[in-house]
Structures
1.
Amino acid sequence: MILIVAEKPKVALKIASALGKPEKKKRNNAPYYVVGDIVVAPAVGHLYHLKNAVPFRDYPVFQVEWVPTDVAYAKSYVKNLQALAKDADEFVNACDYDVEGSVIGYNALRFACKADISQSKRMKYSTLTAPELAGAFENLEPPGVAMIDAGLARHELDWIWGMNVSKALSSSLKTAVGQFKLLSAGRVQTPTLVFLDKREREIADFIPEPYWEVLIEFQKDGITVQAKYPRRLKTEEEAQKIYQDCLNNRGVVTDLDQKKRTRAPPIPMDLGLLQSECWKNFKYTPQSTQKLAQGLYEMGVISYPRTASQKLPEKLDFKRILKGLSGNSQYTTFASEVMQTRLVSTQGRKDDPAHPAIHPTGEQPTKLTAPMQKVYDLIVKRFFAGFADPSIYQSTKVEITVGEHPFYAQGNVTMKEGWLRYYREYAKISEEPLPELRKGEELEVTPQVLSKMTKPPPRYNPASAVKMMEKLGIGTKATRAQIIDILYERGYIREKQMEVTPLGTKTVEALTKDCPQIVSVRLTRHFEKEMDEIYEGKKDKDVVITEAQKELTEIFEKFKEKEGEIGKIIYEGLKETLDQENVVGTCPQCGAKLRIIRSRKTKKRFVGCSGYPTCTHSYPLPQKGKVAPTEEVCQCGAPIVKISGRKYCLNPECESHAQNQEIVGVCPECGKELKLIYSKKTGKRFVGCSGYPKCTKSYPLPQRGNITFLNEKCECGAPLIILGKKKEKQCIDPTHAT
């Protein structure tokens, strides 16, 4: 019997289906599939994780071990593999073909199955299509020891680095102020925070300077054109002089340069490019994009997304993919057009020996969520665009002289769509036509002076931060998005335009001053390179881990000397961050700060005055939902906060709450108005009768998504609604048929 271990249940079913007609079986709610003498059984991601092998009382600790995950449902999958392994003669790791999948499969085989790894095999595939999976099984590879070692080294290095540095930071806080708080740090996380904080300091240190621009505006053929003076002017006097010279003067076209230019088709996408495109077009975070792409991959409709390749090899059989896509009415025309070309795709610079660039497989997707559909459509149209001709546009640059002063305008008009036919909506290229002009032509112009200020560099957003991590060579394609999410979760950064909190700033300040090795991009990049060399078979895993332990030992010797000083600086940032998060406004009675407080007795949260006990003013809060200050004050004098994204006056007696209760229908029981209500206790929305408490009729509502109330009622008397962007009407009563 051959036992194939897949990474997830969905993938196990696809592999089994590619090898024949599978018979589904279950053991303790863990599925597996039988195809003749082949059994395909899934893990559910990591069934084993690292843990300190000795009590963690002081740092550094380097003794670690792999132990079964404590996630309850995963235990049945381990037991399933243990039982199946007893009858197995051969073992195959069919988890994702990367270092992470190698570790997942390796641990499942060595711990649960007790398999001899040297005798096991590896399935290599980049899509979950039946032909590729069947081919991968027919051409099994050796277990891939170098890839496994690279994955094990990364896990161990990240664990000993992250756990020890986190312990050191937490200990420093306790040493300094006697307060314990679990602080987080990591081999990649901390250097990432450093470059985010560097940008924050650049913004803080930036001194805006005034400058002036002079424009002229003219109209011709129904087109309004603005031409700019070629220099920013440092004084208003200089700008006003040019303005006065141009006032009541005519412009003359003194130069006209028209050229045909080309825009090359876009290159195939690696994960970083996909994340960047999805942020630009949909504002999806890199982590969200990665999850959506993983879902599409598991459906079998795109290739493996965690790739560093920007190349599509010819062996992919483009005709088969295009033929499959033509079966989708949305892409029939485009696919047919592309099939008439030479089917030579553009190629990017980067390559990945494990997987090609992200591309559609040609399989038909079913039941895609709206976000998945957007990502899928972008991937498909990017694929089409890679086979198309360059886009040709006419670039026109015109010089218009007014008196002695030259002004310039530029316009671009697409002459041949080329690849834009397929990817225009995602390329964000705008047309800027100029009217027909000829040299020597005179124009009526209107001058303008604009007063402006220089702007600081922009903050990073999640996509540009991931791009910078890639540029610096820290993290991996699969982990960078997760690192950004961790920085948010740990309170080091906030907002989409990533603002470093005082805790983040003070952590960087303390470590840069007293322990710079921990925040060193150079050191992080060094170990990234060493792990790449393990992957390539050039370095030994144990040698790299030993080097890291030695480096960390030296770092922590110096850290302990400065532990108290580091802790004091971090405490300043922690206190300021907590103040910013918990202060929601000013007390209307005494002018002191209003803070979010959690009762020691009831554990419930509320807003209370920091002037207590002199001032006892307070407001209740919903017990669920994130509370954020807005710096706005209601007409009643109470602060306005955001609770789960919705603005909310803290005063429960405020008239604004009644005004916000939208009338959505008529109660079928008592005939009074039905209203959309947000619970003061939980913050959740529902529809309730205005006759309460005499009439208790109410209907639950989904807590996410837009709801459109239609002023129509179902045959049962309840209102009809539309959820999200769906077109179907449905009854608000969940017990009633839609």
Note: The chain has a mean pLDDT of 92.
2.
Amino acid sequence: MAFNKNSGADSGSKKAKTIIIAIAAIVVVLGGILIYLAVKANEDNKIAALKYNFNKFYPDTFNSVEELDADSDYDYDGIKNSEEIVSKTKVISGDTDADSLSDKDESTYKTDPNLADTDGDGIKDGIEVLAGLDPSDLITDGVTKDSERRFSRVINFGEGSVSVSGKGSIYGATVDKLLLNAVTSNAGAITAPYEFYCEGGFEKATLTFNYDPDDLMISGVTTNNLRIYQFDPYLKKYNPVGASVNEENNTVSCELHSNGVFVLGAENVIHQAALAFESGIMNIHLLIDNSGSMYPKSIQSTSKESDVNFKRLSFARNLVTGVDKNVKFAVSAFTYEFKHICDFDADKSHLIPAINSIRNLGPGFDGTCVEIALIQGLSYFDDSTKGQRNVIVLLTDGISTDNGGYSLNDIVTLAKAKNVTIITIGLGDEVDTELLTRIAESTGGDYYPISEANILEGLYSTMIASMKDDIVDDDLDGKPDSYTLYDTGFDPDFNGFSFQNFKSLESQTLDYGMVALARDWFRNLVPQSAKNPETGTDFTFEGSTINTAEPLRKVILQIMQEPWLKPENYLNFLSTGDTLKVSSDDAKASQDKGWSKITIPYDEPGTGWTSAEILVPNHNMSTIRTKYSENDYAMINAILYYDSYRGTGMNFSLNSDDDFSKVKSILATGTPLVTKIFWDGDDGKCYNRYVLMTTLRRDLENPNIFRIKVYDVNTKFVNTIEIRRTIKVNSNGEDDFTYTAHWDNKQVSLSCYPS
């Protein structure tokens, strides 16, 4: 047999070639995979970037475009909007440069409306005008520089005055009365707390408080015990700063060396009361009017029917259940006679039945005796409660028909002796407002005028907030920074919706409808059904299981669980053409369940897109009922009903002191305030968004800075609007202020809708 010695070599060569080819193929495949993965990774990164950009953009689509009316004057400064645009002053601020001169007055004084200090001497233009200086001249009198001249002035306030001297900046100094519970509830405080503040500094200041000898006698205080104290909000202590008593003029004076909060107080008593406040232990005696005027006419023919549904008892129950375990309650009812029901007790299982029992007492038809009720109620505070914080909450709907021989002085004297603060609530328009106010103010309490019984149920949260320590850590950095002036008690996590703002075929944004509904739900004023005769928009909760007595947060809608609420879940970020489209699968699936497509402007650089498709629930389709639930259909229609009143009704812009007082008076009743935030965008258009104003706070150190907490249905976070107050030059020589608002890093205007 012949043997070919080359056959083995050929075989080896073939194997080698096969291996090389295989390796090459693998390399090609791997290369292809790597290229694919690289392309895919690049595509994924691109999609991720596009999603991120869209998610940043999308919340802004819930801002409504508002046409700018050229002939209107949005900031009430006397200049038309069109003229402000030409002069480059702000359409939404009457004092663009915040120098205390209105934009219109700037022309009178020949100053720059966009420059706070026209002549550059370190004194704002408006302050110079108040000081009698020329804001456009460095040397008004031709002799001494304005910045080197010295002035003196007297600032009078409710219970005294401050005499201050220094540079021209002293004309920007202010004295504010503080509704500061930590101080006003102190039995040792003879006056309310007042804050002196001079931003530019001062050289000398003398604070003088007036006192009434009769009031001192009532409180058991002698002039030897009088001291002026500076309240330290961080340590919550009272530091004496002086006491020069003039018994002939009934005044107490001292020199001031810094800005701060000051109060005239009684030595020792003020410190003991401060310790009681800090202890956190509180005793509250509820005195509840149960006279015939509260009952139906079927029971009492002459009744005002002030509270036929016993909302006063709901208020009392809410108050008891809303406080912490360190609080004890006593419960009494009164008509022409006093009926004590329950001694001080912290056990809610005892207190709630005691409150409910008032319903079975039956009305008293022979009058209302406020003074007798207070004297009797005060008698239940004894030695065991003297070193603690004590409060009476009195609720009445009538004028006292028999004072039992007791005077206001008798009530105040006894309250001071027992360290009791009295809070009064007047229901309806036939109450002795003057008496209830004086009783409250004389004992460091508050008076709450309530127009109707339905509002009572929500008042408890405001009252709890007022009883708590109103010095708070607003930015949650571990340090107190604000005073709480008014807190309605509206908690977005409890009283807000379980879902955020959404769009519909009828409206590009439903924020107004949602916050207005949330407000009325919180106040227990949402009707079972209603119709807007102007638009025909209506809703009914009949046939659904929605219970308006439960917190709004408990209303969970099936439709709001769908992924189509978030465009990132359904948009095809590989869409070609000029529209970012909904994926075909989501388009069909959503349509089957009653959703529709709308198109919104969306210009994403580099993509060619100028618009985007958005999925929204179509509430008119019967599929909302069949595919989801009657609850979903009813609730969406309720939101649309409330939204149909968008921009209607009485409203006012927050620009002046009068406007700010309106805001405070509304929040004081425990009513959140529907507010439109308005601003001019970078694109030359004007925008607005509706939110719910819930809490008003003030900076701890600067009385010109306020913070408003708002419920914004467009975000899951609590938003804050900052308000800055600027003293205003006016013709009558009285102190007045302008207010400018800032939100989301931009200056805005606020329009408030009380109802």
Note: The longest strand covers residues 686-699.
3.
Amino acid sequence: MSASTEVFGPEIAPLVPDSSDPTLPTSDMIVSLRDLVSAIQRHPSTTSAMLRSTAARLEEFYSVPSDQISVDDVVDDREDFRDFLTERKYKKNSVRSYANYVGILIRLARQHGWTSSPSAVPPAWRIIAAECKRNDKSLLKYLVKNVGHPSAVREDDLRSWAHMKVAKGGSYHWTEKSIASMRKILLSAGYGGSLRVKSNRSKYAIRIELFPETLRTEVEDVIRWKVATFMPGRPRKAQIRPISADLLRGTFSRLYGFAVNVAQIKNIANLSDLVNADLIGRFIAWSLDERRTKGKTLSTKLGQVSAALARNPKYSGIVSDWMSALLNSIPEDSEEEVIRRKQEKFLPYEALRKIPGLIRRDRPVPANADPRTIALAVRDELLMQWLVTLPWRQRNLRELRIAGDAPNLQKTTLPVHSNISKPDWVLEAEKSDPAVQVWQFRFTNKETKTHHDVECVLPHSLVSLLEDYLTNHRRHLLRGADPGTLFLNDAGGPLRSLTLRTLVSELTLRYGGKIVTPHLFRDIFAFMWLELNPQDYLTLSKLLWHRNIQTTITIYGRKFNESAALCRMEKVLRL
């Protein structure tokens, strides 16, 4: 093998050593890290200094002398050692270089006759260890240390490890892959009784493109009728957005997939064969019993199918009273249970408010990092600051446009005749400059879920960070053509729904210790608002862009129960 010439950080050895340099005579016995360092000192080479420096870092990592560190330990803890260096603010090149030299230390030990001790993994775990890939070793070690037996592994154990890894700077995506891999290994070994397992029919759905011709034509006709800007005979409010059309398309795919793959019905040729009382009833029972689908979720999805057919003159005869009766019979969790389950996922609003500052604290120093790494940190800070300031739906966050034919976020003079309310800081600025330009956003009725226009001045707390991001950092994220969206993904394109969810989940897990999705920010914000302003549902409804205040009261007024009313009554009586 030829020597590599890859350059690392200037404070570290500049070259990655050749795999054949150094070598150790086989007369030395290697058990501990000290044995290995002693052998290196007796047989010096051009890389000896860096190998000794790596050994010193390992002593810091373990907080014990090198004679108490076995080579087995070093092998098992390589990934954790990288996390330790990252957490200690070592530069990226330094971390990579030290990790390479750990590999060289292990290779030297093997050249000298060292072999992994079979006792390093307890007997009960050896069948699990044999199936683990390299990236699974960290999770395996954690489980061996913290769980007595593979059969005792719970979902909470897997999640605790993930929380620890992400908090140390690990990748949320990587930890999820490791958990999925470990779950599969445990299940294959017969130890999955306490793990969250998806049905083995998880891929039962069939794409519409694969439907029989007549059925496919009818389903596409129904969806097209619901999405089109205008259709004769369709009620004005019956139009749905493309995102809702995708959900409807998915429900039809699941219905047909259930009929063919689960119920083993082979003669479905049209919508009447697919949507009938018998098949829909069987689908509901299977979804609730086998898939553990939530009743409310099932009611919503099938309700979309019912509405799409009932209002369409061509297909209204397919559904009748039987569909309403079935939907009304689907059991749903109590409102109290829904709130309890949701609040278990909450982080306190104050904890969320601290996250942007924590991201700023950890932002790489320009002298030590490339501009793109810094730009990613600024993007994350702005994203989290946006979420704790404006409780938007994630679609509107993803579709913020600063360029193109119709930007909906721009800095310009406020129209003279406008319904936009001006905050105090804008009124003050207009005193000295009536034409002052301010950041403002506008979403049309086609861009909001509730189909009404929204126009506002951007809150002042977002302005300076936004302008810093746009002026100094966003351009470093671009790869190719600019999509025009404010927020970009790691590849320079627009954020997609799953990408945004993953990014926010990783940031809240790292800095808050719990996964909080973008939509949960809305709930946390709403409950915080009502704690501080118990009767102000009107303002909350406008902040959440609800068109009807009754929607706000129905969703968030559930927390105002009989006990809250009684407490308020007592305050009144004490006056």
Note: The chain has four domains: 33-118, 121-188, 208-332, 349-529.
4.
Amino acid sequence: MKKQILFLCLILASSTIWSQKDLRIPSMDELLSEEKQIIKAPLEKDLGVTIWSDNFDDPATWTIDNNGLGGVEYGWNINDVSEGWYSSAGINSTSGGNYAELVNGDPIAGTQELDVTFTMTTVDPIDVIGLAGTNQVTLEFEQYGARFNDLQQILISTDGVIFEPIGDNLDKPVLSQSGGSAYPNPDLKQINLGTILTATNDPIWIRFSWTTNYPGSSTNPNVWVTYGWYIDDVKLVTNPDHDLEITDTYWGTEGLYYYRIPTTQVAPIDFQVSVFNGGIETQNNTQLNVDINSGVFTGTSDPASVAPLDTVDLTLSTQFTPPASTMNYTVTQSISSDSTDDVPSNNQISNVTFYVTDYIYARDNNDPSGSTSNGTDGFEVGNLFDIWNDQELKALTVRLPGGTNGATVGTEFYMKLYSLDPNTGDFVYEMESDPIIVETNMLNQNLTIPLVSPVFLLANTTYLAVAGCYTEGFRVSNAGGSVPQTSFFFDWSNETWYYTTSTPMIRMDFDPTIGIEENNINIQVGSVFPNPTSEEAVLKLYLANASVLDITVTDLYGKVISSNTMNSQAGQNEYLVNTKELTSGLYCIYINDGVNTITRKFTKQ
């Protein structure tokens, strides 16, 4: 059963704090200036009856509104020549010949137009019900291009004046130097209109619209950059009789999925799919079928009937709990029903492979693709982890990308651990590493970074493990995708948490031998948090034995601000630093256990 996670921390006046970090505006430095070579994708067979089509052979069947701009450099144009800066060949459509193309200047030359919306609309309305005798039809078209900061929408209208959006390309990844890809050439886009049109619907106009996805930043030239959008072979096709389509898949434990699970943290795993019936007939005895390691475990969901245009969640009736021993697992999933599916290509589920390991806890799929950065600003990025059994954590791991767009050698970074307050949703500081300087031999490697002192993780508690820096030049590799609000990004420039749907390669490492050479040191001290601080801060300390600590706070010139004696127990302790009355500046804290003296610095803002 997927859990719902509510985050309330760091609430500001803005309503976009918990927004998706993917929505940060990519800069021109991130834009790829060279078109990627795309292999033509095989198109799904057309099982329905085409009741209307247009392949742009006659441009007069479309009305174009290019905001009063002339020439082929701006807005929509219909011909057989690619006019844009990105693709020299245009779209490899089925019909060939003319196609529609969206252009907005050349971003390399800086000629993109700002504050524009370009539309292309059918001249005549289409009587769908009269042509098909039913509202069970699908709008489909072939497209090519890529997404940057643009909003590519499809809309319909019953009066030619008021248009309602029925689809877009926001499900496509952003293409930049950080990753992403262009669309397949061509890409078949299908929008089932059965849930939108009524059985007595008026005729409709179809519109394709392009503008920025960031209207609040419309003065920024980057939000008006487009690779281009190519469209051809627009059709209205009646729906097939039997068509189950998988619209969502989920596997994991309480909302989080792990590709590597330490033997100490194994827990029951759920499997679920969402199935949409895009056909005309009800699909009976629809089930999810799961097989793990060719018969080691098999299971099914309870059978369900899926009415036309309905969506049903199919959840495995029995959870799978791996044994607490190292093993590789491959999961094969499929759906079945009493009817033979007319379009089986849209209900295939990719195999899942995960591992039970000795010590590593990982949310990423170990296949680096792209990276996370924050331009010239510092940031933190990482993943949530659920802990099911009490366990001591000594280290986190991170992968830093190399190459042209990799982490900059010489950049200072750190690892940090937060716990999640279940009542408020706040991220609560637990511990961090000492600062690390990026070296060449660290790039494209999984680095194990010890925390300043071990942290005893509590069962049934959620933690956030991150890597971070305060300056530019730092990047963290991504591998796979995350469900919203399970991986997070903290922007130091506005001190705001966002969620990200990319999975950063940040892991927990429970290897008990990490830092074993330090076990004879009685005291280990974390960093002051928060830092900078305004009213108070916390210093976390870990002691091998109960001790009396002398704690002294001085200013930058050595003047003693406060001096206290603290009776500390073995294990983790906290010391509260009251900074409310201090003037702005740099301060030092000296911690002495009678043998060693450790210094930590903080800034009062």
Note: Residues 366-509 form a domain with the Jelly Rolls fold (CATH 2.60.120).
